[in-house]
UniProtKB/TrEMBL annotation:
Residues 41-128 form the Acyl-CoA thioesterase-like N-terminal HotDog domain. This is Thioesterase-like superfamily-domain-containing protein. PANTHER family: CHROMOSOME 23, WHOLE GENOME SHOTGUN SEQUENCE (PTHR38110), THIOESTERASE DOMAIN-CONTAINING PROTEIN (PTHR38110:SF1). It holds the Pfam family 4HBT_3C. It comes from Immersiella caudata. Residues 167-310 form the Acyl-CoA thioesterase-like C-terminal domain. It comes from the Eukaryota. The lineage of its organism: Eukaryota, Fungi, Dikarya, Ascomycota, Pezizomycotina.
Length: 323
């Protein structure tokens, strides 16, 4: 059965709200919510999404409110609480504008200059901003190399009665440990359904909060929700495997990239997204991850890639330091 809705769950739009401090200098403030913690550390994709939100506000007067591409470097872990985001135009353009962004925490000021010499740079980023609906040549060249199981009857997923898709087994066991994952419902192919190799998971997802459609600012969180290609190799209790069935890992993101093909606007009411994840190799505690995001109609929404680490969960609980 689907997980019950937490009474304290806040909407994602509330969690990524950004306050304009100085539009002329591209300075914004956000508050990182504890509803998106991975044990003790906020989900990196969620924190990165506040930068997208600030960039959209910053570029709206220039009629380039949409992120085309984003590249984030996660310099150190963030914490729950206030952050300052600064944006700088690196290359202006009539069609594309490149921004440099920095997200700061610790020793923040209540007024300009907002940050101090001892404030921590948690994330730096480069973003390409544009207006995605601009007319241009469009050609359909993408198709999944192997089709997933038949699309579910979405009305049956909450009751876990669809013949091909079911609640993800990892989440059924560990959901209460990870607050960030409680904001999404994940549905994986049933063992009896035809599907990809275990290291190439397919997933249908929706938001836990009712009547909250996906928007573009959700995408960093979506592609960084969890590297299921690692979890797909988790052995069952009593079985041999590459690690213990009850061994818990933390997956801090080192770098992450996003390319948006189609903007997700709240007015379009996109309730469901399909994810296909692929990891080429997990080596010495490092992994690559590619996430393809599609809508119910099979249209390509976005492509995300990242490099991450596989660390013991005790590293998550030690406090700030080197990853």
């Amino acid at each position: 059965m689907a997980q019950p809705l937490r009474p304290d769950l806040i909407t994602y739009s509330k969690a990524v709200e950004v306050e304009t401090l100085d539009a002329n200098t591209g300075t914004y403030r956000a508050n990182i919510s504890d509803a998106y913690l991975i044990v003790s550390v906020p989900n990196g994709g969620y924190v990165a999404a506040t930068i997208l939100q600030a960039a959209s506000l910053f570029m709206a007067p220039k009629s380039q409110p949409h992120t085309l591409t984003a590249h984030w470097e996660f310099l150190t872990r963030s914490t729950v609480g206030s952050v300052i985001i600064t944006l700088q135009i690196i290359k202006p353009g009539r069609q594309l504008t490149t921004l440099h962004a920095t997200l700061y925490q610790n020793d923040l000021l209540p007024s300009a200059p907002w940050v101090t010499s001892t404030s921590r740079k948690c994330i730096t980023a480069y973003l390409t901003m544009t207006s995605l609906p601009l007319a241009g040549l469009s050609l359909t060249t993408f198709a999944l190399s192997n089709p997933p199981p038949p699309a579910p009857d979405f009305s049956l997923l909450p009751s876990d009665t669809d013949p091909n898709w079911t609640n993800h087994p990892f989440l059924s066991t560990h959901l209460n440990r990870v607050a960030s994952l409680q904001n999404l419902h994940f549905y994986a192919p049933r063992p009896s359904a035809p599907h990809q190799p275990r290291t190439i998971p397919d997933m249908w997802i929706r938001l836990s909060t009712p009547n909250s459609p996906f928007t573009t600012v959700h995408l960093p969180y979506v592609i960084d929700s969890l590297p299921f290609s690692v979890e797909a190799l988790r052995p069952a209790a009593g079985q041999d495997g590459p690690f213990g069935h009850d061994e818990l890992f933390w997956y801090p993101t080192v770098v992450m990239n996003l390319e948006v093909k189609r903007p997700l606007e709240e007015s379009h009411k996109v309730e469901w997204l399909f994810l296909r994840m692929k990891t080429r190799e997990i080596m010495n505690g490092r992994f690559d991850l590619e996430v393809v995001v599609m809508d119910k109609e099979g249209a390509l929404v976005a492509v995300g890639t990242q490099v991450g680490l596989v660390l013991g969960m005790e590293r998550n609980l030690k406090g700030r330091g080197k990853m």
